[in-house]
Amino acid sequence: MRLPDGDxxxxxxxFGVKAARLVVAASAAVGVLAVVSAAGAAAxxxxxLRLDGVPFxxxxxxxxxxRSLGLMNRTQAPKDGMLFVFPETTTGGFWMKNTLVPLTIxxxxxxxRLVRKxxxxxxxKDPCPIYDPGRRYRFALELRASDRRVAARIGPQxxxxxxxxxxx
Length: 168
Prior knowledge:
CATH class of the largest domain: Mainly Beta
Strand order of the largest sheet: 3-4-9-6-7
Strand content: 25-35%
Largest sheet: 5 strands, mixed
Number of domains: 2
Radius of gyration: 24 Å
Number of strands: 10
Number of helices: 3
CATH superfamily of the largest domain: Protein of unknown function DUF192
Shape: globular
CATH topology of the largest domain: Jelly Rolls
C-alpha cells in the first residue's frame, strides 16, 4: 500500500492475502484462456494458396495431432477445405470415422500435381473404409463433396515449401 507521504508499508492482513490469492487466480485463468484461444486459432490456421491457378485459403493440418483430427465432428467442411501437409512424401489412406459430412479428397505430389481424387462418405461406426490413393503423395486436400473445382494443381511451389518446413 502506498501512503500519502511516499513511504511504502507492507502488512499481511487477511484481506491482503485473500486479495493476492484472487489476483493470482484471475491471472492464471486469463493465462489459460489465452492458451486455449491460441490453440483454437492454430487449429484453424489457413494458408494463402492457389488451386488450379485460382486463389483459395484452406485450413492447414501440419502437425500429427491436427492431421489425426482432420474434419472429425464438424457439421460443415470449410469453404476451401483442409490441406494435410506431411513432412515427407507418404503412403497410406484416410478414413471418415466420426466425420459427419461427405468429402472429396485430392492427393498431390511434392510439386503440387494431382496424384488421385476420391469421394469419401461419412462413417459413424466401425469398420470404416480406408481411402487410399495407391501412390505416394505429400499433400491431401479434403473438400466438400459438392465442390466442383477440378483440383489438378496446388501451389505456388514456394508456399508449399514453407508449409512443408513447418510440418511435423
